[in-house]
Amino acid sequence: MSYPLFRNIFVLLCGAVAAAWGTPRLALDNTVATGRVAPQSNGIATRVVVFNAGDGTLNLTFSSEAPWLSAQTQAGCPGYNHTGECYLINIVVDATTLASKWYTAALTVGSPGALDAPQDVIVSVFAGGVSAIPDRITLNPSRSGSDSQTIFTGPASGSISVTEAPAGGLALTVGASSFGTLFWISEYTVQVAAPPGATEGLYHGTVQTSGFPSAADNKTVQVRIVVSPLPMAVPQGDGQPVYFRVPSGSGPQSSSIEIFNGGAGTLVLSPPTSDSDWLSAALADSTTVTVMVDPSSLPPGYYTGSITVPNNGVRSVVVPVTLDVGDVVLPWVYHVSTVNPAFPPVVAPGEVVQLSGTNLSAHGPFAADASRSLPTTLIGTRLLIGGMPAPLFSVSLDTIQFQVPYEVNPGSTTLQVERDGELGNSVPLSVVAHNPSLFAVLDSAGNRIDTRFTQNVATVTPDTMFTLLGHGFGVTTPAPASGMPTPAQSIFGGAPFDVPIVLGIWSGTLGAYQFAEQTVTAELVPGMIGVYSITTTVPQPQGATPAAVWFTVYSDEEGWSPLVAVRVQ
């Protein structure tokens, strides 16, 4: 039996059966949209796709409490894998009166009489001054590192080039890329690299943008370059706003962001400050900031503020925060994190999955004890897959980690979050028998092997016994219990909970790779929930060592999984 290597499956399953014959069902490809506009403009900032996952016909309506936000409908979805009723929704931002900052608001998409309607699309846009492209940027590479900044992201396109290179051997480059399935979003980036031993100091360069639809975006951008051995704090999300959406009268809520070091040395964060009475922040650890909002005394409306995180680097971090206080706000799921980027999201029975959204809990965050049976209700929150409660690892305002019940049958279904008895939006979900992925490699002593190929990556020798860990391998024999740590032995004669799986192995050096397949047995790890292990040996790679070995697993439904790798010495 042969298997196609890296078979890409991006199947849009839009055949969900409506509750009543002839009733349409509203479905969106995304409930979060981000764009960048110029305040002087009035036009399309980004797009989402709406399709009918039921019967009948949709009659779309749009509304928003934000006066600058509206939508236009374009029938048909060219390039999108859907043959039924489908619409391209152009999200329009009137930025003629907007200041230069982030704005966030909800666009409500409805269809009278349709199931799962209405639904909200959370729109975040940045009004970037007179032009969406800045007049000047500052880059801060370390002595032997680099720094980059994206100067434009949006549906418009143009060209970018370096017109003045910096002195001192610094390399100033530009890049342009596009991404998307239905429509293209263009991204333009400026990057500078400092060679080892570069002299500290201030350097200068320029880049030119041209060909953009807005004349204000065609300009010379001044690039200020500071070569410094200091750390450089970079916030998670690259400065996009932290968004809270809560009912009026709610208690305090929190969310966390990571601060990364994009420079040299060791980054040390100082206690953060805020500019609003309802907003505060604190250091959770050396790299994490907890952002807290208290809407208890605020009337319904949109509130904006920011937190500042001082540090020992070349610049402080400023993170914008948006608080949306509503009369009644339902729990809302934005994204289900899965192995393959498909819509609807694809999961397997027993798989451990994380989703993101807003207002998922009014009392969190809270984590269950994973060494015992997981609850299906955690601080007032439940997650339902086809109406079946899922075991919950943790719940917070914006994330839920859960296990797909082993009892869920393969096929098309839906996912919903219930908070304190209130049901949120319905998210289409595709359940397959197997959706395997690998996430870790352990050596014979049980130590995790670094699979990132960093400078100090761990190495192994050929024929060494080691273990691969993964999720989503499906139902084992015998069938396990949902939400329960795997017992040390099965009650059925002491046999392990196992399932056959096809393991793919790439090995070798550049220009001399070889690929092999082998059917192996994956077993549920005793004492853990939904974690599978494969024990095997490192093959002797073709050619000389050091070499690399990549591992992947196969399923008939989803093809080959993403790779994990080790270095063979």
How would you sum up this structure in a few lines?
The chain contains no helices and 43 strands.
Task: Name the features.
globular, 43 strands, 569 residues, Immunoglobulin-like, 9-stranded mixed beta sheet, 5 domains, mainly beta, 6-stranded mixed beta sheet
Overall description:
With 569 residues, the chain is mainly beta. The chain has 5 domains: 26-127, Immunoglobulin-like; 136-229, Immunoglobulin-like (Sandwich), CATH 2.60.40; 241-326, Immunoglobulins (Immunoglobulin-like, Sandwich), CATH 2.60.40; 332-431, Sandwich (Immunoglobulin-like), CATH 2.60.40.10; 437-568, Immunoglobulin-like (Sandwich), CATH 2.60.40. 0% of the residues lie in helices and 48% in strands. The strands form 9 sheets. Strands 35, 36, 37, 38, 39, 40, 41, 42 and 43 form a 9-stranded mixed β-sheet that branches.
Number of H/I helices: 0
- Broad shape: globular
* Helix proportion: under 10%
**CATH fold category name of the largest domain:** Immunoglobulin-like
Radius of gyration: 26 Å
Number of domains: 5
- Please identify, by name, the CATH architecture of the largest domain: Sandwich
Distance between the termini: 32 Å
Supply the helix-strand structural class.
Answer: mainly beta
**Unreliable stretches:** 1-20, 452-458, 490-494
Number of strands: 43
Name the average pLDDT.
79
Report the CATH C-level class of the largest domain.
Answer: Mainly Beta
* Assembly of the depicted chains: single chain
Q: How would you sum up the major sheet? A: 9 strands, mixed
Give the percentage of residues in beta strands. over 45%
